[in-house]
From TrEMBL:
<protein>
    <submittedName>
        <fullName>Glycerate kinase</fullName>
    </submittedName>
</protein>
<comment type="similarity">
    <text>Belongs to the glycerate kinase type-1 family.</text>
</comment>
<dbReference type="InterPro" id="IPR036129">
    <property type="entry name" value="Glycerate_kinase_sf"/>
</dbReference>
<dbReference type="GO" id="GO:0008887">
    <property type="term" value="F:glycerate kinase activity"/>
</dbReference>
<dbReference type="InterPro" id="IPR004381">
    <property type="entry name" value="Glycerate_kinase"/>
</dbReference>
<dbReference type="GO" id="GO:0031388">
    <property type="term" value="P:organic acid phosphorylation"/>
</dbReference>
<dbReference type="Pfam" id="PF02595">
    <property type="entry name" value="Gly_kinase"/>
</dbReference>
<dbReference type="InterPro" id="IPR018197">
    <property type="entry name" value="Glycerate_kinase_RE-like"/>
</dbReference>
<keyword id="KW-0418">Kinase</keyword>
<dbReference type="InterPro" id="IPR018193">
    <property type="entry name" value="Glyc_kinase_flavodox-like_fold"/>
</dbReference>
<keyword id="KW-0808">Transferase</keyword>
Length: 383
């Protein structure tokens, strides 16, 4: 029996690899001799670098950069075979780097993300994957572009400061000193966000609140991003206002497309390609996937459905082991998932569940395998 494990992390409790290890332990309690293939996966958010470095045998690079609040921090990214870099903007400009009471998209910057891109180019990388989930910023990617040599000036010819709040003073954009090596680098943005830059479905309105924006700030940030888009079109000739995905990561999607000629791709699809999951699915008997919470949103580029769609091509059944089941989760059954099993066996607090996640995942995987075994028992029964 060959079983492929391809699960997302359980955010806040277990990484993708830790989830896979726990599932394997559960499998081996029932089928100790099974062939188990573990493929760490992610959807472009936090954990993407670890997923690809571990999954492909890459290496880590650690550098000092400017964090989202303008202070120096340490951050790391990955370099894979063929000198391909993989970067998480969350590691440089993410929510987890800012204390809750200090969240403020008016001042947070993507400068550190640009520094990571520059460092990868310095190390000779010609292809760079950038996962842009989990941002603490709303600066349209201006900080990122500043780190790569672009100048954003106010009416007096002075460089504007960090954050989405400073975009209102933008008057001119000078790309004459942009890193020319970008012309020879392919930048691939991993993101499932298709929001435009501005408006009710834009970066500020949809994602601003989780970054600390008040209703008044949201209105101001949205106006600032629109002003930025107008200046960008006028001075650089790039029209990204309504481009799908331009609103990703507080407008970082727009900045990457405008200044780095980046292309946006669905996160899970690119990562499954890099990890060559199809090669392992061709002769698999079962796939076990999962995520922290499965619900109606899981059909929109989340790991379990992405994995299930690949498995469906090879007629391999899929079980999703999850932390919790939310409203509308049954929608995933129409996208290749055959069964959902949550890890909570009895009433418990969220903190208790998160603390004991590995053990609970292991127990659930064991139950899944015992249920899976019922099929073969029934098939061979002579009763």
């Amino acid at each position: 029996m060959k079983i492929v494990i391809a699960s997302d992390s359980f955010k806040g409790s277990s990484s993708s690899l830790e989830v896979a290890d726990a599932i394997e332990k559960g499998i081996r309690k029932v089928h100790p001799d099974a062939e188990v293939v573990k493929i760490p996966v992610a959807d472009g958010g936090e954990g993407t670098v670890d997923t690809l470095v571990i999954g492909t045998g890459g290496k880590y690079e650690e550098i000092e950069i400017i964090g989202p609040r303008g202070k120096k921090i340490k951050a790391r990214y990955g370099i894979l075979e063929e000198n391909i870099a993989v970067i998480e903007m969350a590691a440089a400009s993410g929510l987890t780097l800012v204390k809750e009471e200090e969240l403020d998209p008016m001042v947070t910057t993507t400068y550190g993300t640009g520094q990571m891109i520059k460092d990868a180019i310095d190390k000779g990388c010609k292809k760079i994957f950038v996962g842009i989930g989990g941002s603490a910023t709303n600066d349209g990617g201006v900080g990122m572009a500043q780190a790569l040599g672009v100048s954003f000036k106010d009416k007096n010819g002075k460089e504007i400061g960090y954050g989405g709040g400073k975009l209102r003073g933008l008057w001119d954009i000078d790309i004459s000193k942009i890193d020319k090596r970008l012309e020879d680098v392919e930048i691939i943005v991993i993101s499932d966000v298709t929001n435009p830059l501005c408006g009710k479905d834009g970066a500020s309105h949809i994602y601003g609140p989780q970054k600390g924006a008040t209703p008044k700030m949201i209105q101001e940030l949205d106006k600032n991003l629109k002003h930025y888009a107008i200046v960008l079109k006028e001075k650089v000739g790039k029209d990204i206002l309504n481009t799908p995905g331009s609103g990703a990561a507080g407008g970082l999607g727009a900045g990457l497309m405008a200044f780095c000629n980046a292309k946006l791709y669905p996160g899970i699809e690119k990562i499954l390609d890099i990890n060559n999951i199809d090669e392992h699915l061709m002769d698999a008997d079962l796939v076990i996937t999962g995520e922290g919470k499965i619900d109606s949103q899981s059909i929109y580029g989340k790991v379990p459905v992405g994995v299930a769609k690949r498995a469906y091509k090879y007629s391999v059944p899929v079980v999703a082991i999850v932390g919790s089941v939310g409203e509308g989760a049954s929608a995933v059954y129409e996208h290749g998932v055959n069964a959902i099993m949550d890890i909570i066996p009895r009433p418990m607090t969220l903190s208790e569940a998160m603390e004991n996640a590995p053990a609970l995942i292991e127990e659930t995987a064991e139950s899944a395998m015992r249920m899976w075994g019922l099929k073969s028992i029934r098939a061979t029964s002579t009763c």
